[in-house]
Design a protein that fits this description.
The protein has helices at residues 24-37, 55-60, 62-73, 77-97, 131-139, 148-160, 166-171, 173-179, 185-188, 193-197, 209-229, 232-237, 260-271, 279-288, 300-330; strands spanning 15-17, 20-22, 200-201, 204-205, 245-246, 292-293. With 331 residues, it is mainly alpha-helical. The protein has a domain at 131-306: Hypothetical protein, domain 2 (Endonuclease III, domain 1), CATH 1.10.340. A two-stranded antiparallel sheet has the order 1-2. A two-stranded antiparallel sheet has the order 3-4. Strand 3 and strand 4 (204-205) form a beta hairpin. Helix 6 (148-160) packs antiparallel against helix 11, helix 6 packs across helix 14 (279-288) and helix 13 (260-271) packs across helix 14 (279-288). The longest helix is centred in the last third of the chain and has 31 residues, at 300-330. One of its GO terms (biological process) is base-excision repair. Residues 44-54 have a biased composition (Pro residues). GO terms for molecular function: DNA-3-methyladenine glycosylase activity; metal ion binding. Residues 24-34 have a biased composition (Basic and acidic residues).
């Protein structure tokens, strides 16, 4: 006896449709859930192109750059029209406000204003220096001198530096010139002892007695040098081949008190009978007479003294050569 037993249905059977077997019952809910969770981004069919902003405007206008970055971050078809319209408005505003400057032209408004101040001088001239001393530095110190009377005056001042400072000497300059007969060597050479003792200012001698006697003795020896070399200027400048020495120091501490050249000139002067003409005195004389240019490189007078030299040196050399030839012919 055979009894047909029905097997329990464990799963839903496939339904044969016109397009093939599909499990409609099991896949429909899954398809619905997929459509609910995953959404593809919609792209606009015809996106509005963003107009390109000219490069000079972008480079010179920072507000346009920031607006462009905001426009580029927005997406979606609904916001594309808004971003395009906002970009157009920003472009119009940016073009009005932007100032396009070529790369090779510097705008005058960007250049810093020039600050005019006092010229740079040597370090020993400060804002608190005596005005006469400052003027002496700016106009005379280091300028080549070729006049015998002027050279003798500067030699006397260099000797006086052992007792007085440059500001004190310059403040008494007119008194010096009056008492020393405008530094005429022929007149000073005839000074007597009584005349020397009368060279007083406010009851005191202008210089010490040894210095006053040295001035008179040096005037006598200077007359002899003029007879031998034609001029005292020719004698002094012959030690440097009629060309000033340019040291070109950068700092005041580098400027020497004496040099081997000054020592050589000092010995020659002493052999000729000059007095109070040590190497320190001689080097101060060389500085103030322009035989050596000791203005610092940072001082505005360094180049000016060199330019004055180019103008004045050639005529002086020619005059010296004429005197030398005349002396040779006389001999």
């Amino acid at each position: 006896m055979s009894v047909a037993t029905a097997k329990p249905v464990s799963e839903t059977r496939s339904i044969l449709g016109p397009a093939g077997n599909r499990v409609r019952v099991s896949e429909e809910p899954k398809r619905k859930s997929d459509t609910n969770t995953i959404k593809k981004p919609q792209r606009p069919r015809n996106p509005v192109p963003v107009p390109k902003i000219p490069e000079p405007v972008v480079r010179n206008n920072g507000s346009v750059d920031s607006s462009c970055s905001l426009d580029s971050s927005s997406s979606g078809g609904s916001s594309a029209k808004k971003s395009a319209s906002s970009t157009k408005s920003v472009r119009r505003v940016g073009l009005k406000a932007a100032k396009v400057v070529p790369d090779n032209v510097v705008s005058a408004t960007l250049s810093p204003p020039k600050i005019s101040g006092p010229p740079k001088r040597c370090d020993w001239i400060t804002t608190h220096s005596d005005p006469n001393y400052t003027s002496f530095h700016d106009e005379e110190w280091g300028v080549p001198v070729y006049d015998d009377g002027k050279l003798f005056e500067l030699l006397v001042f260099s000797q006086a530096l052992a007792e007085l400072s440059w500001p004190a000497i310059l403040n008494k300059r007119d008194t010096f010139r009056k008492l020393f007969e405008n530094f005429d060597p022929s007149t000073i050479a005839q000074f007597t002892e009584k005349k020397l003792m009368s060279l007083k200012v406010n009851g005191s001698l202008l210089l010490s007695e040894p210095k006053l006697r040295a001035v008179v003795e040096n005037a006598k020896q200077m007359l002899k040098v003029q007879q031998e070399f034609g001029s005292f200027s020719n004698y002094c400048w012959s030690f440097v081949n009629h060309k000033p020495i340019r040291n070109g120091f950068r700092y005041a501490r580098q400027v020497p008190v004496k040099t081997p050249k000054a020592d050589h000139i000092s010995k020659d002067l002493m052999q000729r009978g000059f007095r109070c003409v040590g190497p320190t005195v001689v080097y101060s004389f060389m500085q103030v007479a322009g035989i050596v240019n000791d203005h610092l490189l940072t001082c505005f007078r360094y180049q000016e003294c060199n330019s004055n030299l180019k103008k004045d040196l050639k005529p002086k050399i020619e005059d010296t050569q004429v005197l030398t030839d005349a002396l040779e012919n006389t001999c």
